[in-house]
Amino acid sequence: MLEVSQVTVDLGGQQVLKEIDLVVQTGEILAILGPSGSGKTTLLRAIAGLVPMSKGTIRWAGEDVTNVAVHRRGFGLMFQGYALFPHLDVAGNVGFGVPKETRREQIAAALDWVGLAGFENREIEELSGGEKQRVALARTLAPRPNLVMLDEPLGALDRSLRDRLVGDIRQLLEERGVTAIVVTHDRDEAEAMSDRIGLMRDGKIIQVGRLDQILTEPADPWVEDFLS
Amino acid sequence: MTTKRWGWWLTALVPTLFIGYFFLYPVSRILSLGLSEFSVGSTGLEARLLRVGWFTLWQAVASTALTLVFAAPLTWAISRYEFRGRRLASALVTVPFVLPTVVVGSAFVALGWRDSIWAILAAHMFFNAAVVVRTVGTLWSRLDPDLLAAARVLGASSSEAFRRVTLPLLKPALAAASSIVFLFTFTSFGVVLIIGGFRYATLEVEIYRQAVSLFDLPLAAALAVVQLVGVTFALYLYTRYQDRHARSWTLRADARRLRASGRTKVALGFAVWGTLAALAIPLGGLITRSLGTRGAYRTLFENNRVVGVPIESAIHSMTFALIAVVVAALVGVMSAAVIASRSGPFSRWFDLTLMLPLGTSAVTIGFGFIIALDWPIDLRASYILVPLAHALIAVPFVVRAMVPTLKAIPSGLRESAAVLGTSPAKMWWRIDLPIAAKAVLVGAGFAFAVSLGEFGATSFVARPATATMPVMIFRLLSRPGATSLGMAMALSVVLAAITTAVVMWIDRLQVGELGRF
Amino acid sequence: MNLTRIMPAQGNRTALPTDRSDAVRKTAAFISALVLLTACGSPSGTSPKTLRLLAHDSFAEGVTDATFSAFTEETGIGVEVIASGDAGSMVNQAILSRDNPLADVIFGIDDTFLSRALDNGILRPFKSALQDTVPSGLALDQTGRANPIDFGDVCINYEKAWFESSNTPIPEKLDDLRSPSYAAFLTVESPATSSPGLAFMLATIEEYGEDGWLDFWRDLKNAGVRVAPDWNTAYYGDFHPYGGSSSMVVSYASSPVAEVVFADKPITQSPTAVIDAGCYRQVEFAGVLEGTKYPEAAGKLIDFMLSSTFQQGIPLTWFVYPANSTVPLPDEFVAYTTLPDRPAQMDPAKIAANRDRWISQWSRVMEG
Lengths: 228, 517, 368
Hints:
The structure holds three protein chains of three kinds. Chain B is mainly α.
């Protein structure tokens, strides 16, 4: 279980996250939905440990990880632009976070999950947009992280591809039984991929719940407006 | 397809003519003149040649490696982080690069750093750090910071992430910077003579000794050929490396820098202040001496019957530098476009040839000019020859700064433009150039600095008696008297200030502004 | 700097502080010359518009508009100075461009390069009528081609205050320097890279002969002499008045004068002086270049350079002595320094034949 409490982030003299409280149950998929600039990406980065927090704590399985270094938290983050390493091939990317002993098997397995079996020796440059997205997903999943965070996983893809992949991602996450946070600005995507939705605006979590619950009892007029 | 070929050859033509007429032709004329009379005569020559050649090589390799290490912290600081005075720091580091060796030489000597190999290596680090900071910095500041973040999230410690991600991505720029530093130190002259004392001789020093002091042109030519072969071999390795390792990857068009906090801030402080302090030690004496002499700065503006008005040399220097920058930028941009657009033997040899002037002894070029450049018009002793000689040395800087960036332009961008029906020329203009504009500026900044500080090559070119700043400084330094020294030091400080200001101004120019025309 | 103090009577032009209009005019002329790119093609005919004068950098950089204005007024011929590096580099450039000469007149060939210039046949016979005014000791060329224009003596300079405060007697002969109490405080320039360094080495060869000179240098080395690569490193890096630790340095007989003229506050006595031992007389020559289209005008320019108009400006501009002995020395040269009694000189042919060997021998001793 991930517990985020009172998390506050200041960047360049501006408060980007304001006392965020959030709980994600083990095995649950939570979507963070909000307009651009609402602090969704910063929230993921704060949980991952990439952004210094001015206040608050982050706990995983009851343990305080606030002061644990990024690379020791055991969290996975898939970046918005994928951030694939251009100097490495597909296997080099997917196996980056995997220990040497089991690397080959884990790369093969992860590529298999995302439907890219046999892509090991392909160069990143040669891949299509959809293939890049799946390599990035495989790279995030390969080290078997406790928590998976996906930042706009479908953002850069065209419509038809998105529709197909939305289902794939959910299925993949559910099959592995991982705890996950998915950031998106699209209501339909959020609904299709997650169990619960957290609504974000101006660095604050406005409301958390299932989409139908939120629609019946919107916290304020802005929520109603945003979701319609 | 044919029009594309045609345009490519046409673009290649201008740099080819430039390098052909101003470098290959004069150098081959002087070398063939010397070699036609060469005979293996005196005994013990081979042993001496071997000794000098070996020293030249190993000190250049050691100097290059040490310069990379010395420049690394500052490069890291100014390309990854935003802080007050970042631009100033990155401009200040170029100052040693333009200061004449005679000026810094006496400062080194006064500090007791002299007559040893360590003094030579230290001086090479001091003079060339800028090449690394600025060449590598350009690429580094454009690397997507998410790549590093991704590595961290995947379980890499920060040092592991640097080793596995940042370093491999910086390789093209590291290789480019190393190649230039290597050429500079391989052909080192002033530093070896003045700071190293009389015990050490590079091939360059030996060529000067044979050609100028002893007028043994055959032997000088033979040495120059050895030097050229060494330089060509090193450059061949480099261009082959560049061909194999340059891949397209996404570079940000704008630099993204972070604000440091906590421990990073301390490290940043050490990196910036430590490096600048190391550079300032030899420069400190310069400023103290210029301020210690009464009226040193004022007298620069006065008509002094021995050297005229010293500050006029600044106008001469700036005019020459401006011409050199324009020529070097034109030739360099065309060359970089040719080299980056196609790999293969032609591009490789073309690239290599453009770099050769950096690794050719100044005496060879100067004497070559004298016997070759009276046809079709007599350019010897013409005003234009000095800035052209500067441009010859500056072109490689423009090319080196641009090629890694041009090669890194993702092909996806080009493809999508091609789909939209853009012609190759237009595509280059619309896509490659704006992205490469920043690199052009870095190259132009160097071209300016090279021209402003160049002393060695020009002193072997017959030219109208128009004193540039380094020449004027040398002139002031070659007569006794406190005022002479004070004025020389004051003029050096002015030279340093102009360099800093111009480099800062060039850094400030935005890519967007250039992209518009 | 007090400019009026150093102004000699003979100046054609008074030195005025901040002559701004002049600076602007010269800059404009320079830029327009650049724009026009007029690559020095001279019109043919017996009397040229301009003569080209090939010179080493240190001469060229001292040339101002006034330097040749009297010549131009008199003959209607302008003078364009072409700078070409140090003396060695200049002579070599003249030899290399023999078939299509860079200039009409060459100036600044010194005695150590004279043989090279004569042997390679770059000079036309021309002997100025004013050579009668030149002391015979300077006329090193018997073939009537090289005309001595100036000379300068390379001598050891010492700091007066240092010797006074340490109660050390001034050395009187070269042999005195063999002792560590002197040699350790002496800086010499390397003859391989420095012209005064070469001159001083030649002086020691003249003094001790082929058999003894290397022993002298061995003693100097063992006694801790310092070697600098060039004059300015020796003078501004090692010399005690400028923060170094040597109280003696190989420089010129005229250096004490420059110390007064270029002092940063007015002084009436030079802080340095010359030791009258181990001095060597360097002579600089001018000649008409073979292949010039205007031999007659070129000869006139050399005549002008030997005339008192030009000669009297030499000392305070280039800090060497006029070859024309009828020209009075400026007061500063009388007051602040002394010319050595019997400076060494050597036959240029002998220098040319042995220079390489001597330098190698010297290097072996000093490196070993």
